[in-house]
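Lab notebook page, bench 4
Experiment: in silico fold of construct C2
Operator: M.H.
Input chain length: 98 residues
Purpose: comparison with the prior construct
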Amino acid sequence: MLVLNNIPYQFQKSLSDIAGQDVTTHNNESTEVITIVRRFLYSHSIESRKKAIPHSMIMIHRYELFQAHLTSIYEELGVSSNLDDLEDLMEYTKVAVK
């Protein structure tokens, strides 16, 4: 099980059902989230699948390219890139990846 949180020990206040699990803090840094998730996937993959998982630096670079493209889509559509509505974010993301 992979459990992430942006603030250390915050999960204990609201998620007692995962007590005993190691929680990894990402400090709201996308690069840390990518690195942590990649490390988790790699360590839980069978040997023959590990080669298919790119290095975290490659994943971070791809994410940064995606973010830049998504930002330009937001600008073209005249919307804020700080969308709080998950449905709107997903809709604009679909446009960005086409």
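Observations: The beta strands are 3-5, 23-25. Residues 56-97 form one domain.
Next step: discuss at group meeting.
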